[in-house]
Predict the 3D structure of the following.
Amino acid sequence: MSFEDFNLNSSLLPAIEQEGLEIPTPIQIEAIPAAIEGRDIIGTAQTGTGKTAAFVLPILNRLLTGPLRRVRALIVTPTRELAHQIHDMTRAFSKGTRIRCSTVYGGVNAVPQIKALKSGVEIIVACPGRLLDHIEHGKANLSGVEVLVLDEGDRMLDMGFLPDVRKILKYVPAKRQTMLFSATFPREIEQLAKATLHDPKRIAIGLARPVYTVSHALYPVPQHLKSRLLFKILEHTDTESVLVFTRTKHRAKRLAGQLDKAGYRTTSLHSNRTQNQRQSALKGFKRGIFQIMVATDIAARGLDIASVSHVINFDMPDTADAYIHRIGRTGRAEKTGDAFTLAAPEDKAMVKALEKIMDQDLPRMKMDGFDYDVKPHRNQTPRGTYPQKKRSASGDPRKNRSGNKKQSRRRNRGYKGGRTGRQKG
């Protein structure tokens, strides 16, 4: 089957070919015809299976007929990075058309977004908090929305965005096409689907299991030796494209600094970085400027980083679902990849949960020549071998923290009293 078989508007086909899409993926085969027919859709698929194109192409196909310079499609997503990815794909597929797309999210100046909305766009890709700010200040009009997409529904639930999503639904017409995509369907998401969608077509591709193109391995190690073991693993690993996950943004920053000092071309992706820094980190990692990216779970969902050869869980994720999305950054588009997890003794319960969903025991690995019996240093924190925070010139570390808070407030300025502080990730 080819994309021509979908009977898409002919003006879209050159862009599809230019983007290198030849054979539709299973979710595209299922979703695109139903979306073109105008049906509501509940979709679930393994990460990296082409889900974004499955809803972007039908939207563009619809918008090629009808009025321009008004918002006709709204795509709501939980993180800025995912919003950017969807926006970039929408622009790529809409080359040669007059359709325009704009992103809306917190953490950046609101003025350019307001100007874009005022000039007239057909598609908005938005994070919930900032979108509500624009709506409540009269800067975004959703009364003409014909298609609504709620992407990464369970992630929006995890991030506390569901109340905002429900508020947004009050501003879009009741008569519309709605597509909801979610990796899992907890009770709250099922309730949202029931209240939001009409006679939806359910599409489920490759559920509940990690992608089959990824090889998994556990490296049991005491917590205080994780950094040393990571460096040992990297010495014996092709380090052209490695994604390392940590549980906290502070640990991501410190670990990235250690790797950089050791000579690895390293960047980091976490919520303490400005939007420009985050975009620069992603672009640099995708282009191979950086060998290693250290990230929190902000990078685990939806991001299209096709060249990642290895995912290393420096910290065990909090849930089995989070593990699936983390390791889904490698082994994409039928390519093979490796997922290594540093498992401390306290991670025993999560290891059992992972083995249950995978229906197999994860292989335990040991590095030859690594001393697992080294005792923690007397001044070492129990969570790892990290350097102490730098003190200010006065010797008071609190002054550094307060200065950072002031800088953060300046970076996150948007509407006074708005929701930008809620924008997570």
